[in-house]
Amino acid sequence: MAQWQTPEELEQLLTELVSWQSRSWTEGERIFPHHLMNKLTNVPYFRENSQNLTFFKTPDGREGVNALYLSGKSRRTIVLLSHFDTVNTEDYGHLENLAFHPQRLTETLHDYKEELPEEAREDLESGEYLFGRGVMDMKMGLTLHMSIIARASEEQWPVNILLVTVPDEEVDSAGMREAVPAIRDIQHRYDLDITLFLNSEPTFQELGDEHFYMYSGSIGKIMPAALLYGKETHVGNPMSGLTANYMATFLTQKMEWSPEFRETEMGESTPLPISLRQKDLMGTGYSTQTPYRAQVLFNAFLFKRSAKDIFELFRKTAEEAAEACNSSYEEVCRREDVQPLGKVEVMEYRELLHYAERKLGKDMVRIYIKEVMEKEEQDDREVAVRIVDKLILHCQELGPVIILLFATPYYPAVNSSEDPVVMGAVDVIQQKAKEAFDLTVTQVHYFNGISDLSYVNYNGETEGWKAFERNSPVWGERYTIPFEDMEKLRAPVMNLGPYGKDAHKRTERLHKKNAFQEIPVLLETLIDYISERD
After folding, report:
1. Residues 374-418: pLDDT tens digits?
2. Which of 411, 442, 486, 494 fits as disulfide partner to 454, beta carbons 3.0 to 4.6 Å?
3. How far is CA 271 from CA 103, 214, 256, 258, in A?
4. Which Gene3D superfamilies does this chain map to (predicted)?
């Protein structure tokens, strides 16, 4: 019998994978793929076909793993996608040392039940859940995929299985962005026909939601941002300046919860946009100089809209904010009987870049950008803003101004709800779940937790993503998206994973019966349907 097939074996494998702590940007994340490779080598098929186990690297040296089972009977291929990095564990407090030991943590939590929210406490007392960092997001998904490829190779299933697991999903998805060309290379080398991209991210619910979901798409995410440049002054002479903080309030009020950014498709709606960051760029020390440079960063979700659509809407919103700011500022100036310092204008990053190149020369602009890029201690979002800041400081005559840009990451939305393969698969899985477990599976058209499925089956127009490229200051140096390869990975997507609760919280937990008994059957049903379909 193949490895990792019984509920007991699956739980044992899961706890072992979780114990290999792999928080994003830690040494554990770097070591994890080597532990995993050693584990997969124990599968007889991979002992005999070690060439089918390969690493791929991100630009910073982190690695992902590809494991390929070739049936020899068909070109038809199912790609199993997962990530192995997790978020941090500080939220576990005095129990942090147990966060990566699910069974011990679950037992110990009985002594601290009074610290848990009511729903988590009830789930703990039921004995139906396993607690721990990564048990649901998403080491269980990887566990299930390892079980599938072990069984497929042992029983010689008539379909090819490519297991792909990546680092960095929780931050920038650098792992998946590098996995895309690696998948394309494997597809070309072995002449594979990719039929389905299957992720097994967990079911996500709101508080009190006990429904079980499967997903035929994944929501998109993009991050419009702005640098606001005003006019400095001394706090003792406030009307001689215009603070960037004052300007930022108008943009934030226009953007935060704006219904214009909401999309509704197939009865589902994107969450409203919200601000992720608003701060000045004056450093940490005290100064009586007013803050005349500030940044704002927003989160917006996507269904059908492209980067171009969002940027056009963002510009319209910023222009409305600038108009409101100017009106309010001029009213204050009239009250104080002073002359305004000018009107707040709106520019895009690409416009600022072209202006700076004309004024300073392309070579000097490249030098300035390189100086910022080389400060590796800053993350990409901060680097993007600092590049804009560097350029505007050499073009101060443009102020007061709001410079619009895109921060990273960018997740295009993907959806396969109307694909015949997916429509049939949904029916088969729902029927099997009801018959075998009296379990109702509800289809959701867009997975709302953001996933690596965003980087396959891309079918947007070139101009749609070019808007992101042109207005992302770190594009091509610190951040890229393989759009052209993504367009070539044309196959439907699905997400079917275990039921759990509270991802990214100290009460993260996995429903054991669903994970160890029900989902394995449903995944096998899905793969049987795909492999036997004419």
Report:
1. 876 678 999 999 999 999 999 999 999 999 999 999 999 999 999
2. 411
3. 35, 19, 11, 10
4. Zn peptidases (3.40.630.10)
What pLDDT is recorded for position 411?
96
The long-range contacts involving 248-253, CB below 8 angstroms and separated by at least 24 positions, are 248/278, 248/294, 248/296, 250/321, 250/322, 250/324, 250/325, 250/328, 251/226, 251/296, 251/317, 251/318, 251/321, 251/402, 252/278, 252/296, 253/321
Is pLDDT at 112 greater than 90 in this prediction? yes
Between the two ends of the chain, the Cα-to-Cα distance in Å is 29
Round the average pLDDT of the chain to a whole number and report it. 94
d(CA 168, CA 29): 8
The tens digit of pLDDT for each residue in 228-243 reads 999 987 777 888 889 9
- Over residues 166-190, the mean pLDDT reads 96
**Closest residue by Cα to residue 168 from 65, 59, 24:** 24
- Give the span between the Cα atoms of 40 and 54, in whole angstroms: 11
Would you state the structure tokens that stand for residue 213, as one six-digit string? 């979901």
How many angstroms separate the CA atoms of 238 and 350, rounded? 32
Q: How far apart are CA 382 and CA 468, in angstroms?
A: 17
Bridge partners of 346? 402
Q: Tokens 């409305």 identify what position?
A: 320
pLDDT at 285 over 70: no
DSSP string, 410-423: EE--EE-TT-HHHH
How would you classify residue 156: left for phi > 0, otherwise alpha for psi between -120 and 50, otherwise beta? Answer: left
Identify the sign of the CA torsion 127, 132, 138, 143: negative
Residue 492 has pLDDT above 90, yes or no: yes
- What sign does the dihedral 61-64-69-70 (CA atoms) show? negative
CA 411 to mean position of chain CA atoms: 6
Q: Yes or no: say if 82 and 199 are a contact pair by the CB < 8 Å rule.
A: yes
What are the residues facing 213 on neighbouring strands?
Answer: 442
Q: At residue 96, what are phi and psi to the nearest 5 degrees?
A: -60, -35
Of 345, 348, 349, which Cα lies nearest the Cα of 397?
345
pLDDT at 455 over 80: yes
Encode burial over 490-511: b for 16+ CB neighbours within 10 A, e otherwise.
ebbbbbbbbbbbbbeebbbbbb
User: Any bridge partners for residue 274, and if so which?
Assistant: 299
pLDDT tens digits, one per residue of 7-40 = 999 999 999 999 999 999 999 999 999 999 999 9
Q: What is the DSSP letter of 271?
A: P
- Tokens read off for 191: 């002449």
Nearest 5°: the CA angle 125, 86, 501 is 30
> Which of 339, 304, 346, 307 has its CA nearest to residue 325?
346
Q: Whole-angstrom Cα distance, residue 82 to residue 103?
A: 23
Q: What is the pTM of this model?
A: 0.94
Residue corresponding to tokens 């729903």? 119
